[in-house]
Write a structure and sequence with these properties.
This protein is an alpha/beta fold and 702 residues long. 31% of the residues lie in helices and 27% in strands.
């Protein structure tokens, strides 16, 4: 197989393509094409192949992440979907958790179910919680349901029965009937997509998978055909929300696992950088054109979860979206990107996002027909983006258009000048991100202060210093290729797959022999998927999802290695107490512990990061030019230095206020920060006092 690898990440505004040729990397950033996202992928691919002087046939591996499934769920552009479920439970999707995610707002609306009530068809059958058949499957109701599916022109069917995760026989029998009578209809089984307890989340996940499956299957097949037509004949692996790669057939079968594939790649990059640079506590900021994603990374490991919400409709508040139970890297995502639209509401307040100008028409400064003021337009007005350097000169920004949009959209309604309007837009978007980061850290028993921020994505380096100040973060790392960080993360991600089983028990009753048999079966299932994508050695991680008896939510605990003895119970109990104490600061003495579910993941081994080599000497770099830019410390336009990042070498230092420009992004160094190029070529920004403008050399921080 050729050593050339290509990674493509489709975002809401830009599509990033990176080619890795034996360690030398070439990248391209093009506007996302909504009509057919593959067009942007192919355009970016051609660019990087030309730059690397390579041919399509040289590509040995193609890695891909896409927001297509996420956007289809949010914009409700999926297939006509039906749900076949246990008689009497068709309204579980509508009742949801039977709570209010915003207690004091009488006008809140829940997101409508993906499947309307007339297509939620009851099937007569019933299982007990232990899998015992209480009511046998009624073939007449199944036949009647098949007729309704045909009459309604249903394109995709989700099948999920009460306690089907415990005994999937009924779900599989109904699936066989549907496939026989309606061979062109896609079928999703809840027992395969989400074999866990909690009926609402399981049905919601199955319906979401069915809703996007025809669209994703068509897109992935089209992409494969177009790549083949261009001469790219190599394996295609898809990035999943859990931070691993999977093969094309698995992605087609479980497209719901791709909903956060791009952000997951960025988190993988940040974790790798944390390991290479010796950073124990990291806050990663991935800010692109449409959204900002924030992730906490401790010990070079991102936090993992099995629950996620898509399309939060109420100020991105938890509980206002569609819940999914899939393996995900835990992060918070808000509508804060370069394309986020700014306006003034009826109370005279600046509102920024979550609506985005996207790539069509894009911000006003793109000159593609956009008229609304956006964060990117504000950055242009403040001098943070130089039109002549944007996108390597391939897209000349219209600075007059940016100024006009900011003035008409924000400044004039508030009787401010252009500069004041632009400052207000950036202040609001930065505070939105800061609030989201604080809330996310508190929810997981963490703090933002004292961490190192790793900033990537096209817009993150522009806002990192201001956000760091709000979060009491004193150190920032802006990696090489920051603008295409998620795609770079794909190149570092392992091939992996996770299997879950819900088996309720009290910890004291755990039988080690039974657990060994359970994990063996899960291991075999995961191996079938992973072996189709790689022949490399595999690592195994098993986790138990545990809680104290009487609690409503569980935490994830790694299962200690089995030795065939009863000590596994005590070791698992101690691991649970340690994890619980870390999250909540205490344990509950004398309370019984229960286990709800087990997960097992197989993955290829992670590469051992190279250690950071400190520069032999540090010296102040000579600016390439001088520019006028807004400095938040002085709250005025100031004279600042401009550096080209390509001209900086390890050991070079740059004092703020300054801009460090590269072809795909710009790093803004405010007056209270000092930038240094570390031994790996990454920009290391550290807060300095005005009395001592020279920071300590960047090194390993613990």
């Amino acid at each position: 197989m050729s050593g050339v690898r290509v990674a493509a990440d489709i975002g809401g505004t830009f599509t990033d393509v990176v080619l890795d040729d034996g360690g030398r990397q070439y990248s391209s950033k093009v506007l996302t094409t909504y009509k057919d996202p593959a067009d942007a992928v192919l355009a970016g691919l051609k660019t990087v192949l030309d730059e690397a002087n390579r041919q399509p046939g040289d590509v040995g591996l193609f890695l891909h992440g896409t927001t297509l499934a996420t956007n289809a769920l949010i914009e409700r552009r999926g297939a006509c979907t039906a749900l076949l479920t246990t008689e009497g439970h068709r309204d579980a999707l509508e009742m949801a958790f039977e709570n209010r995610f915003e207690q004091y707002d009488v006008n809140i609306d829940r997101p409508a179910p993906l499947v309307p009530r007339h297509l939620r068809i009851p099937i007569r059958e019933r299982l007990a919680a232990d899998g015992e058949v209480l009511i046998p499957l009624d073939p007449v109701s199944v036949a009647n349901a098949a007729e309704v599916l045909a009459e309604e022109g249903v394109e995709s069917v989700a099948i999920g029965f009460l306690h089907g995760y415990r005994k999937p026989d009924h779900e599989r029998a109904v699936a066989r009937t549907v496939r026989e009578r309606l061979p062109g209809v896609a079928v999703t089984l809840a027992c395969e997509v989400c074999p866990e307890i909690r009926e609402f989340e399981r049905l919601s996940t199955a319906c979401a998978n069915a809703y996007v499956q025809p669209l994703m299957a068509s897109y992935l097949q089209s992409l494969e055909d177009q790549l083949t037509g261009q001469g790219v004949r190599c394996p295609i692996l898809l990035m999943t929300s859990g931070g691993g790669l999977t093969d094309l057939p698995t992605a087609v079968r479980f497209p719901i696992r791709l909903v956060e594939s791009g952000p997951a790649g960025g988190a993988i990059l940040a974790a790798d950088l944390a390991a290479r640079c010796g950073l124990d506590e990291v806050l990663s900021l991935d800010m692109g054109g449409t959204t900002a994603k924030i992730c906490l990374i401790d010990g070079a490991e991102p936090q993992l979860s099995r629950q996620f919400e898509v399309g939060r409709t109420y100020r991105f508040k938890k509980g206002s979206g569609l819940p999914m139970r899939i393996p995900v890297i835990e992060m918070v995502e808000i509508g804060a990107g370069g394309g986020s639209i700014a306006s003034v509401d009826s109370l005279g307040r600046i509102q920024v996002g979550p609506e985005s100008a996207g790539s069509e028409p894009g911000p006003a400064c793109y000159g593609l027909g956009g008229r609304d003021a956006t964060v990117t337009d504000a950055d242009v007005v403040l001098g943070k983006i130089r039109p002549e350097h944007f996108a390597g000169g391939s897209l000349r920004l219209d600075d007059d258009g940016a100024a006009a949009a900011v003035e008409s959209g924000v400044a004039a309604p508030l009787s401010l000048d252009r500069l004041g309007g632009a400052v207000g837009i950036c202040e609001v978007i930065d505070e939105n991100m800061a609030a989201a980061a604080r809330a996310h850290a508190i929810e997981w028993g963490r703090e933002t202060a004292g961490r190192t921020m790793i900033a990537y994505g096209g817009a993150a380096p522009l806002h990192a210093c201001l956000l760091a100040t709000k979060l009491k973060v004193d150190r920032i790392l802006v990696p090489r290729g920051a603008a295409v960080g998620s795609a770079l993360g794909f190149l570092l991600a392992p091939v992996s797959f996770e299997v879950v089983r819900s088996r309720y028990m009290i910890l004291a009753d755990l039988d080690p022999a039974w657990l060994g048999e359970l994990l063996d079966g899960m291991r075999q299932e995961a191996a079938v998927v992973v072996s189709g994508a790689t022949s490399e050695p595999l690592e195994e991680t098993a986790r138990a999802h545990m809680r104290y008896v009487g609690q409503g939510f569980e935490i994830s605990v790694e299962v200690p290695r089995l030795n065939g003895d009863d000590e596994v119970r005590s070791r698992l109990g101690l691991a649970f107490e340690a994890a619980y104490r870390t999250l909540y600061g205490r344990t509950i003495p004398g309370a019984d512990v229960e286990i709800l579910s087990w997960t097992l993941a197989l993955s290829t081994r992670r590469q051992v990061p190279e250690p950071l080599e400190s520069p032999e000497r540090m010296h102040e770099a000579c600016p390439d030019s001088r520019v006028s830019l807004y400095d938040p410390v002085r709250r005025a336009l100031v004279d600042g230095a401009l550096y080209h990042r390509d001209s900086l070498a390890p050991g070079d230092t740059c004092a703020g206020p300054a801009l460090i420009v590269e072809s795909q992004t710009t790093t803004v160094v405010t007056e209270d920060f000092h930038a240094t190029v570390n031994g790996l070529g990454h920009l290391y920004l550290e807060r300095v006092s005005h009395e001592n403008s020279q920071p300590a050399p960047p090194g390993r921080r613990r």
